[in-house]
């Protein structure tokens, strides 16, 4: 294969004979690599912007930083979702300084130019000095991102006008999003409240961690202690240790094409849709069982079981995590520097669930997830000590070989839940994009 | 009922809670809570953190007594990796006011400033605390504690693994 981009060449090293898959730690710490990622990964891949249900009414907007670009995500007065760069076309001031809200127009605070929700320049706050035809070609309207597409209300942007369609990009990840969206016949919605935090580590370390089944028992020992205590005295008391014992024999880790991958596994947390456990209490039993029965009616038992009982940790290359586990989180990772990321996470849930089940879903979420949960902070500590060691030891390589097999394209390899084939899928795509071999263009 | 509490009794109690936290005597801290207690930290992004409800919006922390105790016992373990080695913390409680009293107990508002140092990095958590305390026998107990941070995110703090 041609090494079109020598700067990134050789950072992923594969030895098929030895079943060895290694990543050079420069990929986590080098400023040059980070700049190349901005130019290639974050300018060619589809990047998650937000969920359509965050914008309930016409004029609802949220400001977001996506791949280093400040954007306005808005539902305009024709009910169309749009994405604009958050800058005045006049002299460049940021036109919207709020995190979100509802607006009919945006007035630039600097000289008072006014734009409507479709981005049209409607006032220059003066009657003199401008040719009346100056904006006939619309070049002074708010600038739209080159591409904005959605799949089942998940909106993504692409800064490359020639990019392949979102659906082609998502490849096998569409099925995983379907399994999540099909949990309800109503709508999956983003719930109020968000977790925004930083991790002092390279963004790819969190992508790797988000579907890593291998770390579960070591890093999350205290969470399993908590589950054991919670289940003590209930008929589910034996489930925790049984599940840990059988963890790597049920489920799979598998590449979904294009660098996306999913971990399908079984962990005894109970699931609002739709797996009842005695620890969840009798109050929600009937509703959860009814949801399961309805899934069987709609999709047959095999698919219903997959939707209802399998814990799904999905990473959409390069920086979107959708973990449908004890609760469902949509987590987007924004790289700030080689050694710093910003994370924003939301809870997703069906619009038609009962208040009791909604409360249980959110309680499950904060029990494990987020910067103050019993799980995520221990993950974060691992990422930060990996980063420090990458920067302050001369060891060049990380070994990500577990479960490596003879798959021709590692982006669609399958392995056991505690294997590392999902990361091999990620890094294979990363390498191909960074070397300019995978252009992601039509 | 506890409507006859004075501000200095309430202050002594809140200062005692802060001392237990800074001394990492966390099981004793958990013992300050009633069986029906709730300990909460709202999401920094919340538009209305006073009225918001953990049953329908995402909080940072929303613990009933089982998880209050579990949080305390978890943080005593070496395997709570996020707090190993343990942080050093300093809780400053000020502006204590008794704002009301009813059958649930005495309502208190106070300001909170917490410094947390982990390894060589210090971060600051600041905000308001709304506490409801009640008498159980001779002891005061916390029935409800809600921390409302003066933050928009945890971008400067990273994570929130200490107890506020």
Description:
The complex is a heterodimer of chains A (about 450) and B (about 160). In chain A, helix 10 packs across helix 11. In chain A, a hairpin with a 3-residue loop joins strand 18 and strand 19. The mean pLDDT of chain A is about 95. Chain A has two domains: about 110 residues, Rieske Iron-sulfur Protein; about 260 residues, Naphthalene 1,2-dioxygenase Alpha Subunit, Chain A, domain 1 (Alpha-Beta Complex), CATH 3.90.380.10. Chain A contains 14 helices and 22 strands. Helices cover about 30% and strands about 25% of the residues of chain A. Chain B has about 160 residues and is an alpha+beta fold. Chain B is about 20% helix and about 40% strand. Chain B has three helices and six strands; from the N terminus they run ααββαββββ. Chain B has a six-stranded mixed sheet with strand order 2-1-6-5-4-3. Chain B is globular and about 45 Å long. The model of chain B has no long low-confidence stretch (mean pLDDT about 95). Chains A and B meet through strand 14, helix 8, strand 20, helix 12 and helix 13 of A and helix 3 of B.
Task: Output the CATH homologous superfamily of the largest domain in chain A.
Answer: Naphthalene 1,2-dioxygenase Alpha Subunit, Chain A, domain 1
- Strand percentage of chain A lies at 25-35%
Summarize the main sheet of chain B.
Answer: 6 strands, mixed
User: What is the succession of H and E elements of chain B?
Assistant: HHEEHEEEE
Spatial separation of the terminal alpha carbons of chain A: 20 Å
Binned, the helix content of chain A reads 25-40%
Which shape of chain B, going by the Cα principal axes?
A: globular
Please give the domain count of chain B.
1
Tally the beta strands of chain B: 6
* Class derived from helix and strand content of chain B: alpha+beta
Q: How confident overall, as mean pLDDT of chain A?
A: 95
Q: Count the strands of chain A?
A: 22
The CATH level-2 architecture of the largest domain in chain A is identified as Alpha-Beta Complex
Low-confidence stretches of chain B: none
Beta-strand portion of chain B reads 35-45%
Oligomer: heterodimer
Q: Could you say what the CATH topology of chain B is called?
A: Nuclear Transport Factor 2, Chain: A
């Amino acid at each position: 294969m041609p090494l079109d981009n020598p700067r990134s060449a050789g950072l992923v090293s594969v030895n098929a004979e030895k079943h060895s898959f290694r990543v050079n730690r420069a990929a986590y710490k080098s400023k040059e690599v980070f700049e190349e990622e901005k130019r290639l990964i974050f300018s060619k891949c589809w990047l998650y912007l937000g969920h359509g249900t965050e914008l309930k009414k016409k004029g609802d907007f949220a400001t977001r930083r996506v791949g280093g670009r400040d954007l306005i995500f808005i539902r305009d007065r024709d009910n169309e979702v749009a994405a604009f760069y958050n800058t005045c076309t006049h002299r460049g001031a940021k036109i919207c300084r709020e995190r979100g809200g509802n607006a009919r127009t945006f007035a630039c605070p600097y000289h008072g130019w006014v734009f409507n929700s479709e981005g049209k320049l409607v006032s220059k706050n003066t009657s003199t000095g401008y040719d009346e035809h100056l904006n006939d070609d619309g070049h002074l309207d708010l600038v739209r991102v080159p591409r904005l597409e959605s799949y089942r209300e998940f909106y993504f942007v692409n800064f490359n006008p020639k990019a392949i369609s979102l659906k082609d990009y998502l490849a096998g990840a569409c099925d995983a999003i379907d399994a999540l969206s099909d949990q309800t016949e109503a709508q999956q919605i983003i719930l109020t409240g968000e977790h925004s935090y930083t991790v002092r580590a390279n963004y790819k370390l969190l992508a790797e961690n988000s579907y890593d089944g291998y770390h579960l028992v070591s890093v999350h020992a205290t969470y399993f202690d908590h589950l054991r205590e919670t289940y003590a005295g209930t008929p589910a008391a034996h489930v925790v240790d049984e599940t840990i014992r059988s963890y790597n024999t049920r489920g799979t880790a598998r590449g979904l094409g294009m660098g996306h991958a999913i971990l399908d596994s079984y962990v005894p947390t109970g699931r609002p849709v739709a797996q009842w456990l005695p620890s969840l209490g009798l109050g929600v039993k009937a509703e959860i069982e009814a949801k399961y029965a309805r899934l069987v009616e709609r999709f047959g038992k095999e698919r219903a079981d997959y939707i209802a009982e399998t814990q799904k940790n999905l990473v959409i290359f390069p920086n979107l995590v959708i973990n449908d586990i004890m609760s469902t989180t949509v987590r987007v990772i924004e790289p700030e520097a080689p050694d710093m990321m910003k994370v924003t996470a939301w809870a997703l849930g069906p619009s038609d669930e009962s208040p009791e089940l909604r409360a249980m879903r959110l309680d499950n979420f904060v029990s494990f997830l987020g910067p103050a949960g019993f799980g995520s902070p221990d993950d974060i500590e691992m990422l930060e000590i990996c980063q420090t060691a990458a920067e302050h030891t001369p060891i060049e390589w990380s070994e990500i070989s577990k479960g490596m097999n003879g798959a021709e394209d590692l982006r669609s390899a399958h392995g056991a839940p505690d294997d590392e084939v999902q990361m091999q899928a990620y890094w294979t795509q990363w390498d191909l994009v960074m070397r300019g071999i995978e252009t992601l263009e039509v | 009922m506890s409507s006859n509490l004075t501000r200095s009794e309430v202050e002594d109690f809140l200062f005692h809670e802060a001392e237990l936290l800074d001394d990492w005597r966390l099981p004793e801290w958990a013992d300050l809570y009633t069986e029906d207690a709730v300990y909460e930290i709202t999401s920094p992004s919340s538009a209305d953190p006073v009225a918001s409800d953990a049953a329908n919006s995402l909080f940072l922390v929303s613990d009933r007594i089982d998880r209050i105790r579990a949080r305390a016992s978890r943080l005593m373990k070496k395997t709570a990796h996020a707090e190993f080695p343990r942080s050093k913390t300093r809780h400053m409680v000020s502006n204590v006011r008794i704002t009301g009293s009813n059958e649930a107990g005495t309502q208190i508002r106070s300001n909170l400033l917490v410094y947390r140092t982990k390894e060589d990095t210090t971060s600051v958590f600041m905000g308001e605390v709304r506490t409801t305390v009640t008498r159980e026998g001779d002891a005061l107990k916390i029935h409800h504690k809600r921390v409302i941070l003066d933050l928009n995110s945890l971008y400067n703090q990273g994570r929130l693994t200490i107890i506020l």
